[in-house]
Amino acid sequence: MSAKPRVKVPKKAAKGDIIQIKTLISHKMETGTRKDKNGNVIPRNIINKFVCSFNGTEILSAELFPSVAANPYFAFSARATESGTFEFAWSDDDGKTVTATEKITVS
Amino acid sequence: MRTKDKNGLGRRAVLKGAGLGALAVAGAGLTVREAQATPETAAKSLAKHLGGATAKEGKVDLKLPEIAENGRTVPVTITVDSPMTDGDYVKAIHVVADGNPTPEMISFVLSPNAGKAEIATRVRLSKTQNVIAAAVMSDGSVYTGTKQVKVTIGGCGG
Are residues B10 and B70 located together in one domain of the fold? Predict the structure, then answer.
């Protein structure tokens, strides 16, 4: 999990608008059920947690299981209440966390 | 008169025993490959997430392709009929499947500031199966939606 995640948030919105957020991160999401050439099980390594917050308050979070496809993608909404920053965080089984932020101006 | 062998087993009992043995072998074959979710384990895992609340059908719309050619990445959109206000919103959405190696797919926790109870993501489906989403409302009521997807190429390795 090294590549920079891709996050799409509108730069501007009117107060009360419902905006669309899209996120994509590259991760192989190893299920733990696959075997390598020698028949050994490849250990599970998935992103198990995703959190989106706005100015420190959680908007949406997800608990992921191996049934989520590789390179987890999410599209969801948020209500524009004030100008501020969206924070995104993905954590995987290795204990690594990748974060991203995106600013929005609400008028 | 029924013939019995020296262990006191009738012909029928022997046949029944052989049948069970074959079943047990088939079952063992499956577990060696991988654990498998069934409608029962899917329902059980959903019940665990819902903490005993009774679920009603409705309000939850699952958008998935009728036929997924490639089970490795299947787009899914979950929409819940809710105004998403501070007093009436969707608290959580749990998605399970009844034919994957593990029943749980993904669980979401929402706040009223999500504005709209609609989430899109991509999942893996190892074979043709039902995908079930359960939405927990802020008043504690639970609604579910189910969609069957036919899968031509599985997406869980193996």
Answer: no
Task: Summarize pLDDT for A68-107 with one digit per residue, the tens.
Answer: 999 999 999 999 999 999 999 999 999 999 999 999 999 9
CATH of the domain at A16: 2.60.40.10
What are the residues of chain B with a beta carbon less than 8 Å away from any beta carbon of chain A?
34, 72-74, 77, 84, 97, 100-102, 104-116, 118-125, 155-158
Q: Rounded to two decimals, what is the model's pTM?
A: 0.83
B134 inside domain: yes
Q: Spell out the long-range contacts of B60-67 with Cβ–Cβ below 8 A and sequence spacing 24 or more.
A: B60/B93, B60/B133, B60/B134, B60/B135, B60/B143, B60/B144, B60/B145, B61/B145, B62/B131, B62/B133, B62/B145, B62/B146, B62/B147, B63/B147, B64/B131, B64/B147, B64/B149, B65/B149, B66/B149, B66/B150, B67/B149, B67/B150, B67/B151, B67/B152
Looking at the structure, tell me whether residues B28 and B62 fall in a common domain.
no
pLDDT tens per residue, range A19-77: 999 999 999 999 998 999 999 999 999 999 999 999 999 999 999 999 999 999 999 99
* Pairwise CB contact (< 8 Å): B115 & A62: no
Smallest Cβ distance to A69: which of B72, B107, B108?
B72
